[in-house]
From TrEMBL:
Source organism, top-level taxon: Bacteria
Originating organism: Enhygromyxa salina
UniProt name for this protein: Lipoprotein
Amino acid sequence: MSQLPRSLACLVPLAALLLGCPGSERKTEAGSAAEHAKVLAPIPATEAEFLAELVPLPEGAEAIEVEYTITGPALTGTMTTQITAGGQRRDQWELVSTLGDTQLRAAGVTIVNARQIWTANEGHPGELSDNHLAELARAYLRLDPPARAPVMESIRAWHQLLAEQRKAAGGGDRTELLGVSCLETRIAAQNVCMWEETGLLLRYEGSAFTIEATKIDRQPKLAPDAFTLPPEAAGATRAEPQRDYDYDEILTEIAAGSYGNVSLLVVGSKSIPSLRLPDTPAPHDD
């Protein structure tokens, strides 16, 4: 049963470059960076504004769309991924197998918004899990305005620090696709080239198939309901929560320059779809 691991972002050592190692303390470095990252922009006053700063896109982009081709032995397909500042994401894919005399087709979608993550093969209710970013944003909005400033100052310093770390890491194993530099990583027999600032893969090579980006649109026109769950998601199998979070405590940690738990929340929101081959039944859709 061949598939692209659903939690690929958590398997790649990339998480340390994107968000800092979960549980690590960066108070000294972040504190120094915070001195140079004074609050120059207005403090977010809405959930959307907070999340856009917590999960930004490079060069201030509001949204990015990437189109992919999928190829393999007797297999072809396409995938389109849309993401926004704030962590929303939509992956839609279609695979066609031409092995033998019978043509088999599989299609599916993953939708990530601030509250939920839903993934399903076409015609099935799929699986639904919670996304914790909305609850963190609500906890932020419960703070008195003076208490929000140190949180935002620290988040901005965090992203500045991550950018400096990526730059200091040098070239590494890198290549360029469609004008974007991506980090190459090998996991077992899988090769991945990741656009670190966005959490998007630009190329994946595995034993079953290869996925490669063919087009990047930095100003896509998104459908108004692109990140709204469809009615069939109401029948989805709900995943058990992996752990409970104290959102008020996470905000306190952020203000103190500690980013371990917020890293876990952000990485957890960057869901990468599990692409099932046409002859492979989808899980949790009984």
